[in-house]
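Render this sequence as a predicted structure.
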Amino acid sequence: MSVFTKFGRVKRNHILSQRGQNFLQAPWAGGIVLVICVIIAMLFANMQATSDIYHRLLHMELGLWIDGQLFPEKMTLEKFINDGLMVIFFFTVGLEIRREISHGQLSTPKKAILPIIAALGGMLVPALIFISINGGTTMAHGWGIPTATDIAFAIGIMSLLGNRVPISLKVFLTALAVADDLGAIFVIALFYGETPNMLLLGIAVAIMIGIYFMRRLGEFRMVYYLIPACIVWILFYYSGVHATISGVAMAMLIPTKPRYSRSYYLHKADILEKGIIDADKIEDKHEAEETRLYYIRRMKQISNGAEGMSHRMEHLLMPYVNFLIMPIFALANAGVHIDSMEYFNIFEYSEVAGSIGMGIFFGLVLGKPIGISLFSYLAIKFGLAEKPSGATWKMLIAVAFLGGIGFTMSIFVDNLAFCTDTDLVSAEVAAANLVAINKGKIAILMASLCAAIIGAVMIIMEAKLEKKHK
């Protein structure tokens, strides 16, 4: 192999690696990966060669056999993904909420009031639309499904649209989605859990109170937060409160304040930098390298300590959440086995069963933008908040349509809304609920796609009109 050929390969690999890094850092990349995983899941669930393997794999039991009993109890691969891996997703959501509350768009009443009121409207109106269609039917319990917004998809689409969306509206939708996630967490905790075991829940709360005081005393070592977090997850799992809530609860207890102050960091950084420079003067090459590495490691430790643990964890976990956990969730939950084209008839209605598809579709596609826009208008009209700078009402309504992208959170609530455990309900009810869950997923996917297209088209058209009038 010639030197030029080898150099060409190295250069090409470097370019591919750089492009890969750029893709992973793009805000829309996670959404692209999720869409691909949804398509793969649908294919696996419906192809004759893979359908049986796909569903058997999801229902495969996991755990440890202790004295002839499986621990944790009734833990399948699907349950491990939804109740285990998704805890990490909700943990990062909690870290985002904590960051916004500490020093972001929810840190002061003036900043927080508009996105919080808009998020409230974006949850109430879809729920009311769903109940107006399904009230008094077997589907009524699914009212929480269309109340959620998928923050990754919404922000990803805005990023693809570039500077057509004013920065103030990007900030508004981001803060709104964070507030919406907080609302969805309360909905899950209050309405979609089992009757809680108060003893186990009390122990979990006691541990979290202990962690709070440990944080107040100035503990900054990560291990002292991660080990109790695992214990709290187990207690929540067996208490009846949905285990993912433990992720959010623990995220709120992670310190945001850095271990070292800015002045201390700068002082130590100067000393360590001098040590690295002085290492070059050591004649013994081995000793010089060891000395240099020592100062570099110390610099890394000081740098980590100068960043809050909450920020550090969020930065560390986000790539794994976006490109591992969420794709796995999509692969496990988007694979709806379609044995009849009636699954796509989301507007089918029955006086007894209502229409989960109709409730979800209109809740997301109409309820979300109406609720967000109407409550924003009322908040601004009555002087409670200010309209985002440089934004027109048409552009705000267009952005509000992106709030109708439910996807991840809506699918998650859809799984919780109807019981399929034959130990708790009859086999007939469990089978009917499974059909409702699958129809709900189809409706979520169709509604999210429609909301994304409508929002994107409206933003492009409004941006063109604004440019024309300038």
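Summary. Residues 407 and 444 are 6 Å apart (CA to CA). The first strand starts at residue 64 and ends at 66.
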